Amino acid sequence: MGDFKVLSFMFLILVVMLLGVCHVPVAAEQKKKTYIVHMVKNQMPASFDDHNIWYDSSLKSVSESAAMLYTYDNAIHGFATRLTAQEAESLRNQPGILFVLPEMKYELHTTRTPSFLRLEENANLFPVTDSESDVIVGVLDTGVWPESKSFDDTGMGPVPASWKGACETGTNFTLKNCNRKLIGARYFSAGYEAAFGPIDVSKESKSPRDDDGHGTHTSTTAAGADVPGASLFGYASGLARGMANRARVAVYKVCWIGGCFSSDILAAIDKAIDDNVNILSLSLGGGISDYYRDNVAIGAFSATTKGILVSCSAGNAGPNAFSLSNVAPWITTVGAGTLDRDFPAFASLGNGKNFSGVSLFKGDPLPEKLLPFVYAGNASNATNGNLCMTGTLIPEMVKGKIVLCDRGLNARVQKGAVVKAAGGAGMVLANTAANGEELVADAHLLPATAVGQESGDAIRDYILSDPNPTVTILFEGTKLGIEPSPVVAAFSSRGPNLITPGILKPDLIAPGVNIIAGWTGAVGPTGLAEDPRRVEFNIISGTSMSCPHVSGLAALLKGAHQDWSPAAIRSALMTTAYTVYKNGQTILDIATGKASTPYDHGAGHVDPVSALNPGLVYDLTTEDYLNFLCALNYTSSEIYGVARGNYSCDSSKTYSINDFNYPSFSVTLETQVFGGSNGTSTSGNSVVKHTRTLTNVAGSSGGTYKVSISSPSPSVKISVEPDTLTFTKDNEKQSYTVTFSASSMPSNTNEFGRIEWSDGKHVVGSPIAISWV
Ligand SMILES: *[C@@H]1O[C@H](CO)[C@@H](O)[C@H](O)[C@H]1NC(C)=O
Ligand SMILES: *[C@@H]1O[C@H](CO)[C@@H](O)[C@H](O)[C@H]1NC(C)=O
Ligand SMILES: *[C@@H]1O[C@H](CO)[C@@H](O)[C@H](O)[C@H]1NC(C)=O
Ligand SMILES: *[C@@H]1O[C@H](CO)[C@@H](O)[C@H](O)[C@H]1NC(C)=O
Ligand SMILES: *[C@@H]1O[C@H](CO)[C@@H](O)[C@H](O)[C@H]1NC(C)=O
Ligand SMILES: *[C@@H]1O[C@H](CO)[C@@H](O)[C@H](O)[C@H]1NC(C)=O
Ligand SMILES: *[C@@H]1O[C@H](CO)[C@@H](O)[C@H](O)[C@H]1NC(C)=O
Question: How far is it, in rounded angstroms, from Cα 637 to Cα 99?
Fold first, then answer.
């Protein structure tokens, strides 16, 4: 009971956070909302010979005036339309209607990565064949700035014959904007416009053009061409390249100033499947719900069963537990870690103390002498005066001074703009407990540095205790070789998985802090209206940035192993990911300063060079995913809602998530309480078995693999049977069973372990998370 309350509370937080950023839609049609109507296509009455006419007639039977926003053929069978709640209810009772689900709004999860990932020194390991250039990465985002040098198609061969997509034109976007690199560009606005009214083309482009920057950043991270001499104001200078620098890019603009709407996202996935993309990258997320109500999960299911790998951001709601989005087991869920690169900028105080921070500020430096220093909380009459919210600083109290602002609520760069507007000379941005020691560098509009919580507290103490506090900020450019790295970013969303506790998420982490990639020419690097600067590259952070790293790496693997399924590619990325530094210490979590766990980093940090040759993979078929839905006890309607095929679970069979062939292990055990009216748990043993099947992808030489197990603690015993697996043929399959015997532990206890299979050449690792509920 208690645990359930915690869970629903966490869920509420998520929902509230999402609603918190919602804009109030303009009521274009009174009380009408967008609904996505899922139809059972094979129940079409014989009197119809076209399903579109049938959909239309079903809709007309409840609303004469309702317009079809979209009809869907691949991602789901059905359509999107505008209905009143009452019309939606009567539509639900029509024959052939599976679900009538209200639209959901999603939000974006906002050139040294290749060498950090050891891609550059190992470039020759990736076969230089035409196969990578036949891989098409589809990116659902804010569109694209086609003039970015990352879309230069010099030297690229003809567009792959498999491509069936299009280059859609519109505001500031013509056929000339597509080429052999950026092979496709579409936009989807019907759902957005139905909710917000017609797009105002003086504010945003009704075309694939990116007015925001996010989509240009993600698509160039995944598959941008090499651009030598890239930098942001000289920061992070060097070669900028996408992960799959020879692959093709197809962009699907689904996010607008007012958000990303599920009817548009579903339409984009529907088209991307038809267009024949190989990889889909979605750096966005929304409220989490059961898979049959989650349009991204539903669309991703169809894509996966057609051989398309779908990679999604895990969300930026960390470091809270249970904060993940995009957790369906057919999606690759990507969290974020840091790089070994930093942008130091020191806050040097009048008392001689010196605190390190980070910044991407470029502009006139501060005067040599120390400047007066004021805490924003003492220069404002607002309750949240310390946060430097718009209009809260009293100009007379900040003029010519450096202002200490606390992080939280409004955008970091916005705080700088607020200080600047009030006449401040500079800003020190202090983390609070919510962000701990995590530092995200920004291209501030005024001299500014961001410091961690400990430094922030010390600096605040200094201001409040010194009668005449002073400070200056010293910028030191780009520093490489920062250790330890990676560390898990505090913002990266964390497990456990709220929807299916038996599936460990996130799957892995990838670089997502201070990432440089292409940018739009429509706004400056801060994205603020008051920022007149224009840049070709920008440095930003988020799981939005880590997701396209994995999308691009998946494209590299797809190019190298064209016959691998999406599950095989994900398995290769996961089982070769690393969880420890070279010195053997576990990857740290910056939120706690302690070792991270599989709930933070999943299988670990991606290592593409090892992923190229994983030895063995955990593969999954469409039937495995359907059996998974059976194991969830989904009704046949719910299964149809996710998977469409007319699949019924066999009532004589027992389905178990424990045997779902996932490359990681998540074991939930019940805390057993015996006797004792005091409610204390006493001993009691649980035994749980998980079966897995490994497929040899190392060719006919195969190998003999031995298992090694690291058990978390004496309270859990892990054994594997058999403990040796021998493969002699390509694609040969061998199964094993893991037995977890655990004594009862207090609820909310978590333990972690690891299983590794090795033949001396390959290491096939899987994380284990055990939690007592
Ligand atoms: C179209 O592009 C031109 C030149 O790049 C720019 O001046 C104009 O503002 C753009 N229009 C829109 C709606 O983005
Ligand atoms: C502040 O400290 C850093 C590293 O500890 C050092 O590089 C820098 O020169 C110091 N600056 C001042 C003004 O003391
Ligand atoms: C400044 O703010 C702090 C706490 O926010 C408060 O304790 C202190 O009294 C204030 N100082 C002045 C001079 O107002
Ligand atoms: C802030 O509060 C002080 C004291 O109540 C008042 O004198 C002053 O006018 C206020 N300033 C602003 C800008 O509201
Ligand atoms: C599905 O139902 C079976 C039998 O009632 C039960 O043992 C199992 O725990 C259920 N699975 C889930 C995921 O709820
Ligand atoms: C599945 O097929 C049966 C028989 O063909 C049909 O009656 C049923 O409606 C179908 N269910 C779904 C969800 O398609
Ligand atoms: C609670 O009850 C159990 C069994 O009745 C007993 O062994 C244990 O000592 C009790 N614990 C406390 C804290 O009273």
Answer: 9
